[in-house]
Amino acid sequence: MAKRIRRGRRSAPASGVFEQAPFAQPKRNSEPKRIASDDEIEAIHLASLRLLSTTGIDVLHEGAREIMRKAGAEVKSDSHRVRFDAELLMSLVAQAPSSFTLHARNPAHNVHIGDDHMAFCMMASAPNASCMENGRRTGNQKDFQQFLKLSQQHNVLHMNGGYPCEPVDLHASVRHLDCIFDLATLTDKVFCIYSLGADRNIDGMEMTRIARGVSEEQFSNEPSVWTVINTNSPLQLDIPMMQGIIEMSSRGQMVVITPFTLSGAMAPVTIAGALVLQNAEALAGIAFSQMVKAGSPVMYGGFTSNVDMKSGSPAFGTPEYMKAQIIGGQLARRYQLPYRTSNVCAANTVDAQAAYESVFSLWGAIESGLHVLKHGAGWMEGGLCCSFEKTMLDIDLLQMVHAFLEPLDFSDDALALDAINDVGPGGHFFGTEHTQSRFKNAFYAPVLSDWRNFESWHDAGRPDAMQKANRLWQERLAVYEKPAMDQSVLEELTEFVEKRKTEGGVATDF
């Protein structure tokens, strides 16, 4: 009989602040969904190879083109265009690992990438933030820090996927130093840094190494930080992105190659055509990471969706988005690579549209066989805003998904024949020992759902989910506890930031 794995659902954390399940990565409880046949996946694969060998892809970074030329790619001296022989390309992709571990400064928060493990991330890269009290505003450091604290507190968020909102009140030349300092001190989970120039990559990796308190050799052998590399669709790899791969892969850190292919805009209007473009661009970036360092950790990222053809705006949570997510997972498995996708919506406020588009996006992600879920909590407005209330709604949703993925118990005790026999016809199970001994952990209870009858709900002031989410995020922040860091490590990290600021930080153009 299958034995249920109890993960201490609703158990209190060490601080006793609020009840939640302990930190644990969910695992798939069924095979990933397949909506394209093996022949159809092969058709996308072969079309992608043909595209890269005939049309090719523009690589704007001169040093990257030289690395590609030395590895055997066709590079014309008077052009940015690079073409790849199919056999060369696939031999490089085959060098990438199918699984590995990302090391957090708190080893209890290490994340396994690959196999049947999943990892959920906070939202990243929104220029704006919003809440019920203060409305929508340009992102700032206080909001940025508060989102990080919420991410640290909630065990269902396994990693930080970048800056939840962009703190534009910090000067661009030193912003990354303050942001990574906050990521390293306000949280003790794995985080993502941005590839916006080689100096930012170098600073981010060094700050991560210092925060972990490890040597350069250990850091290079233990992936500890990651970055997302967005291709400039269609068919272009720009300078900052290539610098990011060069810096990160050369030191053994994870890169997530994610083409930004919106069907009907920067990709063909057909989902099949958009996936050919996504796949070709992803393979080019993945192959390049292995040219930089064979065996360096890399992930296949998918972000193909459609646009609204009336407005030209991105649409998310659509049937087309779900289809692209699931086929993206099939393609990643064809190359034996970990897969990244996202939980996204296009709603402008936390309403029914936000809920159903996020549920569709999230369920498409789960069905796809994802390994990393970007933008797991907080995403609004097609990525233009991170909402405090939406963050709490998404956390509740992620916890429900996590509970759904837990294996069921089919032991003799769980089959409950004795309890059914004791109750007999016409009775009830509320007061039985079988129920009472399991009462607390019997079912997952969503925090923001209200299952009272209408009268008691009405008498309580008719609170809706938005109001409860607003109260909840503020209550959680009020009891936030900063994770411990060794004083000598904190001093070294602080000295590094101050030194780099004294030197002027980084150039703000490329």
Short description:
This protein has helices at about 40-55, 60-70, 85-95, 140-155, 175-185, 200-210, 215-220, 240-250, 270-290, 320-335, 350-370, 390-405, 410-415, 415-425, 435, 455-460, 465-480, 485-500; strands at about 55-60, 75, 80-85, 100, 110-115, 120, 130, 135-140, 160, 190, 225-230, 235, 255, 260-265, 300, 305, 315, 340, 370-375, 380, 385. The chain is an alpha/beta fold. The strands form five sheets. An eight-stranded parallel beta sheet has the order 6-19-18-15-13-11-10-9. A four-stranded mixed beta sheet has the order 2-3-1-12. A four-stranded mixed beta sheet has the order 8-7-21-20.
Main β-sheet description: 8 strands, parallel
Shape: globular
Cα radius of gyration in angstroms = 24 Å
* Parts with pLDDT < 50 across at least 5 consecutive residues: 1-16
Strand order, biggest sheet? 6-19-18-15-13-11-10-9
